[in-house]
Every structure is written in structure tokens, then in C-alpha cells.
Amino acid sequence: MHIDDIFLESVDSTQNFAKQNFQQFDKSKITCISAEEQTKGKGRFNRSWLSSKKDNLNITFYFQLKADCLHLTSIAHILALSFIKVLRDKNLDVKIKWPNDVMLLEKKLAGMLCEIEIKNNIADVFLGIGINVNNDQEFIDKIDQKATSLKIETKKDWDKKKILEKLK
């Protein structure tokens, strides 16, 4: 399936942007919304997702499925497993903490948010992921739980575009 890319310099939330604009998206394709900066990132249960400008990967994938699709309830798991594979290919020991966290060395590296709206047997799927990529320790210390970034754990900068391309 073809993917349409929408890149935003700054947005309150890629998830909100997708939900506000999905009527304009080509329903025969996946739409990938990514942002350099997210000012009010969303987590589960209306929690906020803290991200720093240029250091995080902030993404929402939008697509449609038939509401009776067998895989509908597993969509977020498929994204989590894809991300795990990308990092394990780099010899990182990442794990999934169900239902929506990706952990590295027992610290949160990424979080996912899957929202599904069903109307007339069509499911509009909004699948978000926030990844701590190049954050420094000073930023990570602001997070209210044990967290980390790829940069902290590997002592190198990561190319966010390459990670995004592999997730697609």
C-alpha cells in the first residue's frame, strides 16, 4: 500500500492533526503524519507525551479498514513489533511492556496510542508513536517515569528519518 507523507514543523499533536484532517486524506493509502515538534503530545487516558523539539520522533499513521477486520484489535501490537525489529536489527535489547510501551533496559523508550473510530462498518485508525531518539539526560529527567533515549543508551546520534522509513 502506498503511503502519503505529511511533515509538520510544529503541531500540538500529530494524533490531533490526523483526527482533525482525516476527511481530506486519500482513503486508499496510509497517511503518515510526522512533526519536528509536538507541543501537546498525547498518551493513553489523556495523559501527555513530553517531547523535545528535534529530538523525538512524533508520528501518527492514519488508514481505513473494514470494521470486521480480524486484525483490528492487534494494530498497535503490529506497530510495536515492527519497531522492536528495527531496534533489534541494531542489536538493542528492547522489549514491549503491554499494552503500549517499548522499553530499553527497563526504561521507557517509546509509547504508542491507537484510536479507532467506527462508522458504517469502516474503521478509521489513528496509530501514534512517540520515540525518544536523540534526547539528552537533562530532558529525560523531566519525564515523570523511568525513561531513556536511543542517544543516551548508545552514546550516538540517530537519524530519525531512517527510523521512520523503516517503520513505514
What does this structure look like?
The strands form 2 sheets. A 7-stranded mixed sheet has the order 1-2-5-9-8-7-6, sandwiched between helices. Strands 3-4 form a two-stranded antiparallel sheet. The protein has 5 helices and 9 strands; from the N terminus they run E-H-E-E-E-E-H-E-E-E-E-H-H-H. The chain has a single domain, classed as 2-Layer Sandwich (BirA Bifunctional Protein, domain 2), CATH 3.30.930. The model has no long low-confidence stretch (mean pLDDT 91). The chain is of the alpha+beta class. The protein starts with a strand and ends with a helix. 23% of the residues lie in helices and 39% in strands. The protein is globular. The longest helix is centred in the middle third of the chain and has 14 residues.
Question: Secondary-structure blueprint of this entry?
Answer:
Elements: E1 3-11, H1 14-21, E2 30-38, E3 41-42, E4 48-49, E5 56-66, H2 75-88, E6 94-97, E7 101-104, E8 107-119, E9 122-132, H3 137-140, H4 150-154, H5 160-167
Parallel strand pairs: 1-2
Antiparallel strand pairs: 2-5, 3-4, 5-9, 6-7, 7-8, 8-9
Counted by DSSP, the helix tally is 5
Average pLDDT across residues? 91
CATH superfamily: Bira Bifunctional Protein, Domain 2
Instruction: Count the domains.
Output: 1
The top level CATH class name: Alpha Beta
Whole-angstrom Rg:
15 Å
CATH topology: BirA Bifunctional Protein, domain 2
Class based on secondary structure composition and strand pairing: alpha+beta
| CATH architectural arrangement | 2-Layer Sandwich
Number of strands: 9
- Overall outline: globular
Q: Biggest β-sheet: count, sense, barrel?
A: 7 strands, mixed
Helix content: 10-25%
Query: Stretches where pLDDT falls below 50 for ≥5 residues?
Result: none
Beta-strand content? 35-45%
Name the strands of the widest sheet in spatial order: 1-2-5-9-8-7-6
Oligomer: single chain
Distance between the termini: 10 Å
Secondary-structure element order, as H and E? EHEEEEHEEEEHHH
